[in-house]
Input
Amino acid sequence: MGALRSMIACIYCVCVVDAGLLAAQTAPQKPAPKPPGKTVPAPPATDTVASPVSRHYPILILAHGNEPFWALRLGMKGPERLDRVGYPPIILDPAEVSAEEAGTVWTYHAKDDATSAQIAVKLSRESCSDGMSDTKYTFKVVVEHAQIGTLTGCGQSAPDKFPEFRKKNQLDMPDDADDKDKTKDKDKDKDKDKDKDKDKDKRPVLDPITNFHPPVAAAYLDTAGRVILSRGELKKTIAPAGSELAVSHDGKKLLYTRSDSKTGPERTVVLYDAETGRSRDIVGNNVRSAFWSPDDSRVAFLKYDGTQWQVWTLPVAEPEKAAQFSTQVVGSLHGWISANTVLATDMQNAYWLSEDRPPQSVPLKDIYGETFQVMSSDTLRPNPINSDLLLVSAYYLNTPAGAPVDSAGLNSTFFLYEVKSKRRTVLGAADSFARAAEWSRDGLQVFFTRGVPGKNTLATSRLFWDSTGLRPYSPGSYFVIGK
Output
């Protein structure tokens, strides 16, 4: 039976893979006569690697390019996934393929699964160099993405890099494996897939994220509203109440805002030092929203002068030397972009305020689009490894059908926004209420508060930036990471 199945698999390969690849996988066989008018064009003599073909076009191609660095998987049905350094992978929905009469140039059409942007991948059978090595690739590749722009590079046939091809052709199965063994292996794979990701409709083209680092220093509010600092296995109550938590990058210090009035703007920023176990007020008189600089030497915060909020900074070692950072009037502060630039917003624009260059701004309507509404309680968090990528927590303009709502009848979620390309990807599930999304320090994980305030017990969940790996993570809410 095993031999019979192997023979059937080989017959299938003849229909899908060209003769050059098949000869490397099976014993030589007498070729079947080809129908007139349906002959697959033979590759030019200059090709060094045979390319699998399906209905007259190459498949199972890996392509990549430099400046910016990107990679593309072109599978059995067409383009599957586009990767860029510093961004989550883009899942592609393959569409039609067109070929030039010469049989050496193909254009593969596809759609960005998250944004529905149109994509065209032009594959030319010609020698190509990536400029980074001496390797000569079989194909020149040009990717046109309606939002991202043009990406150019090289491609090569790589059938062994496509699990679905190996599975269809049983390349990883011994000929004498019986049906029971294969069934057991499939069941194990299914169990693993369920553990990794319950959404399996399009996720198989994504590689599991394994190089992430769980937080070792974080802070959150417990169900009673107390400020909790977590360092390793140790959890300590820092204050009976507080908000706007921020843990230093070394995990040793915590900033939070203490309200000094139930009705007015009187607030104080408090600094807790885990090594001494002491708390002290570092700045008061109507201040809030403190953030650590990348090297933990400074703190940026908002200060109210009686009529408006502006960004100030202070040296941690000498808090009495607090000084105004920018004259721009803002309503919210969202953190540091770099050692000398912070991100802030009012109700119309996002501002990149810097000490060494003029302010830059982007209209919030570009970031929110027509799907979300701007509120002062929203948060925008720049990715730690790519400041062009923002993590935005916001309310829908129109609540998704069946989604939970708060007392105002609103539903909240979070999404990714690429400032340069204006590409927006919703990460939060439509059937949940999510708020206060924060990045991990490795930039691969998103931690967010799940549950409707006043209706559910709030807790923290975690999700990878490619929307996989959703799971409950910690009790409490407004979870922030230091280290």
Observations:
- The chain has three domains: 2-177, 242-366, 369-483.
- Residues 179-196 form the longest helix (18 residues).
- The radius of gyration is 27 Å.
- The chain has five helices and 35 strands.
